[in-house]
Every structure is written in structure tokens, then in C-alpha cells.
Amino acid sequence: MKKRTNKNDKELLITMYKKLILGDPIDTEAILCEVPAETTESSFTGVEKSVSFLKDFTICRKGLETEPAKEYTREACTADDPAGEIILTRTLSDRELVYGLGETLRGINKRGWIYVSNNADDPNHTEDKRSLYASQNFLLLFGDGAAQALFVDVPGKVTFDVGYTDLKKLEIRIASSDAALYYAESEDPLLLIREFRSLIGKSYQPPQWAFGFGQSRWGYKTAADIREVADRYAEADIPLSMIYMDIDYMDHFKDFTIDEKAFPDFPAFVQEMKDRGIRLIPIIDAGVKIEKGYSVYEEGVQGEYFCKKEDGTDLVAAVWPGKVHFPDFLKPETREWFGEKYRFLTEQGIEGFWNDMNEPAIFYTEDHLKKVFEELEHYKAMEEMDIWTFFGFQDLMGSINNRPEDYRTFYHEYKGRRLRHDLVHNLYGYYMTRAAGESLQKMMPKGEYLLFSRASYVGMHRYGGIWTGDNKSWWSHLLLNLQQLPALNMCGFLFCGADTGGFGGDCTEDLMLRWLAISMFTPLFRNHAALGTRNQELYQFAQTDLFRNLIRLRYALIPYLYDTFTRAAEENDLIFTPLSLAYPADERARTVEDQLLVGKAFMIAPVYTQNASGRYVYLPEDMTLYRFRSPEDVDVIPLKAGDHYVELSLGEVGIYVRPDYEFKTENGVFRFTVKA
Ligand code: MIG
Questions:
Q1: How far is CA 470 from the centre of its chain?
Q2: pLDDT digits (tens, 9 = 90+) for 451-465
Q3: Ligand 1 atom 8: residue of nearest CA
Q4: Does residue 102 register a pLDDT over 70?
Q5: Which atom, in ligand 1's list, is nearest to the CA of 247?
Q6: Are 175 and 84 in contact (CB under 8 A)?
Q7: Nearest residue CA, atom 13 of ligand 1?
């Protein structure tokens, strides 16, 4: 891709992607450069249309007859009013594969389900769900003729029906009459990914120490709790580079405060841990506690940094601290102000953060709660509830949090427009993390910081990574962990990982052993668990030797993973490549959903079922299996292309080195070099 500069000094790209603008879309800044819009079919209304360069798609735009108002609050643009909607449809051939969509549920191939981009705080990642915490609207269709890529750059709700309603149809429903669409086609699907990545800008890369192993748990309350974790890892002789601090460290869950009783001399404690090779990584939540005298709140009100309601007053919602205001991260002034707040912690020696609850999660809004109480009066007065009344009552109580209606009651200021929240909902976590990233870059000596977020949108990948949120200690979530990686990479999210061992639910020793054997390959490598679940620090389990050796294996892999990461960031490449993309001529490779290439040198095929002695592995070419029990204890097994049953007991990790590569150990570090 070539670049040239126009008179405004904005980079104009000569790219294979073409842009279609419908109506007056919101500029999300997902795409960094100005892609010339080749066709501006701006105002077709209510008619089906095939636009020449969106080859196989039919577009139907149901919009307003008039030009969109600058005040972008019209009801016609809501998800519930079909007057403002764009529908893209396309037939899927039997042989086509549909990849992408970033952080979503189900397999690498997205066919056969419906996905809704609508960032959601939902801790139950079951197969029937449609939304997770992220919206990454990039689709790749390939495997039958030329490959096609489509990016739907719309920050509100977008529904991707990928063969859900009709197995052979793709239908994309945009809940707005305004959209920016980017489309390209090529014989080479990997080229489409690289080109897309060059449009959205270089991925965030953390410092190398962030590739170490981290221990986290919601519920470490005091310095003593954290010291105990460090001590017990040291006693077990298991390497540890980070301990995460969850909301417990704050004073009443207030951002940029520390509970001084629990952490009497925080800077000294940070230093003490750093001297032991452990960095502390605190959490930051989106909501700012409403409390007289709390400087962040006072400044936020004064500076008009918070999201406002229709009547111009600040929205009052509730999250962990109780009542909060939400910073309007879409305003540059708010971002600068909030980003600068991280200094409170960096000045005490902190070098990394995780941003949470930034969908944003809302336990309830003050306004809605009032209505609930009013309605309760009505129920209270009843002699008896019939069953439908009872269900209504249950609903009233059970759906207080994260209500779509609440997301329509507050506004953002963005590029001279007032935007109702639901129309830009999926940008909130992105812009919170952008606020943090832009400031941290300035605060850190080398410009290097660790930062990742729960909610995201394409574009956020330039400022931080992501973790995939509240998974469970379920075997199915092992496979999900692996299957989410390629699509995250496609959207620029290279620094990513899942809560190892599972966040919710109780983790067993065998689950943890198998999970580590997967997540040791992911850039973000963190054991995290929810309050109230069984303790799952690695020293809690009996077979300490196995755990130690798995973590030692990770550390031996770090130089390779870091180099692979750096190259992927520089060359807009994937770290995790599905076999279908790496071996396009191989019929079997098309459907492999539980193996991945990691960088260029090797493949992984981990065990993800309980009580298995190993698993079937498909080799698209001859490979050498290195079956590790520790960095020093390894079986070397040359394998021919084809199917193999590979024995892998608990604590064993298989690395399948590709024929052009050679594996060596140098001073305890693994090297995979191209054969001479
Ligand atoms: O409502 O801070 O996903 O990692 O431990 C739960 C407590 C809030 C959700 C995060 C999780 C974190 C938890 N948070």
C-alpha cells in the first residue's frame, strides 16, 4: 500500500479498500487515514440496491427523506425504529468460510449464528449469547473464489446474521441510516487482513515484562494478602511477574484512590514488590463516585467532563462505588483530564492498568430506580398476583441493570455534535482506554506501559490490549479461548488473553493444567478468578512440579512470542493463524477449528476436554512434535502429514515445528530459526 500526503497533511492512502458512505456517519477514528470514497451513494432510501464495488451484496437503506440533522438524537436512528436502518444481504456459497468479528462467541468460522455488536457486561458466556464486551465489525469471506473483506464502521448496534435465519445467507442489519463501509476483495485473504490492519493503524505493544505470568483475584484486599501471594509463589518456586489489584484496593471503589488502611505506604509496597520482580497492576473502573470533596468528582463536575441527560444535568447511575457519573470520554478535554489522573498511580511506581466496566456497565440509573419503586407500590397494593403479573414483577426487579432504555437517556459531545449514547455505545471503552493510553505514553520513561480493557471497538487496539472478560471455569471455555484469538488479531488486537482457569465457577487442578497449556501461548497470560470462587492460585493445587514447569515453559517461550508480536505489529500480521488461511490448498485445513499456527514457526493443538489422554491432531505438512514436560524434558517426534493421535498427559505441552524451522534451546530460551 502506498501513501501520499495531500495539502492538509492528512495521509491519503492508495489502498485496495473502497469506502461507501451512507448518509452522515459518525467518524469513529477506527480508520486512521483518509480513504477516498469512490462512490457516495448518500441518499438512496428504502430501495434495494447493489453497489458496484460491494460485489455480491445488496444494500437496502431505510432512512429519513431529509438530510440528517446535526443534532444526532432523532428517534429514527434507534434500534427500535426501523425507519432508520441499513440492511446488507449476500448469499453464502456452501464452500465459503466467514471469519472475523473479533471478540465473539462460537467458532473461528462464524457461520450458523447471529452476533450483535452491542458491548455488553454479561458474565455468562453461553453458546446462546449474541453479544460480548466488544464490537469489532470486520468480516472476512473466503474459500470459494476471491476473498472479500468488509468493515462496518458504525459505533451503534449492528447485527450480523451469519446463516442464522437462513443457513445460506448473510444479513447485516445496521440500526442507523448512516454508515461507513469499507470493502475489498483479493485472491489472498491474508492480504485483505494486512491491508485492513494498515488502515486502522499499528497495534499497541506492551513492554516485554508484560509477557510474564500474572496472578489476579477479585478479593486480595490488603498488602498482606498480596504479599502472601508473592510469598507462596516464591515458596513453590513458580515464576511470577505481576499481581493484579482488583477494585478492593481502592477507598470505597473510588478511582485514583488507595485504601490507606489496607496499604499504609503504597509507594514502598510497590517498590518492595518490584524488588522481588513483581509489578502491581491496578484496575480502573469507568464510573466516578459522586461524593462531595472527592477531587475527581469535583473536578469532573466543574470541568463538565461527565455525560449529560437531555435536561443538561449529569447522568446519575450506580456501579461499585454506589452512585456515579460517567466521564464523557468522547470529549478530548475529558480524555486529557481523566488520562492525567492515572498519574496518581504512576507517581507511586505503577506501570500498568486494566480498565473495567467500560461498556459502560450500569447497575441501575437513579431515574429508572425511582420508577421501579413507584411501580412496586402498585404491586404492593395487590391482593394477589396472577402469574403474568408475577412475571411482570419479576422482570421489573430482574432487569434493572444494563437496560437499553437507560443507554438512550444520556449524551456525548463529539466533534461538534451532541450524540445520544446508544448511537455511539460501542466506542465508550475504546475512548476510555485511549484516554489512558495517550496519557500513559507521556508519563512513562520509555513511553511503554501495560494497558488492557474489557470493552473495545476497532481503533482501541492502538492504545491497549483486551482481556476477554468474565469467562467460567468450564472446559468449553478452553476451546473458546483458542478460537477467539485469530479474529482478535485480524482487528488489530494482538495483546489479548482470557482469564486462565476461568473467572466464574470453581477451577479444578486438571482444568488449570490444560488451560495453562493453551494460554501460555497468548501475549496476555493471567490467572484471574471471581470473588467467592475456589482459590485457584497455582500453589493451591497438589502437583506443584507440573505447574512450575508449565510456567517455566512460558518464560522460555517469551523471546519467541515477543519477536512474533513485534513482527506482527510492524507488518500488520497475525500472531495466531488458522490452518485454513495458512494452507489454502488443503481441503482438511479448511475446517480445523482447534489448532492454530503461533507465528511462523510452529502449530499448537492443545487438549481441551476433561479426562483425555491426548487428542487427534491434523498435520497439513510434515512436522516435528516437541512434547515438553519442562524446558529441559522433551520428546522429539517427527510426524508425517496427516492424522495422528498424540498422547499428552496433564502438564505436557505439544509444539509442532514446521518443516522449514529448527528448534534450539539457548541458555534456557527457546529459539525457532529458519533452516539454512
Ligand atoms: O462487576 O472488579 O470483568 O475481571 O474481577 C464485576 C471486579 C466487576 C468485572 C471484571 C472482573 C473483575 C470484576 N469486575
A1: 11
A2: 999 999 999 999 999
A3: 357
A4: yes
A5: 2
A6: yes
A7: 218
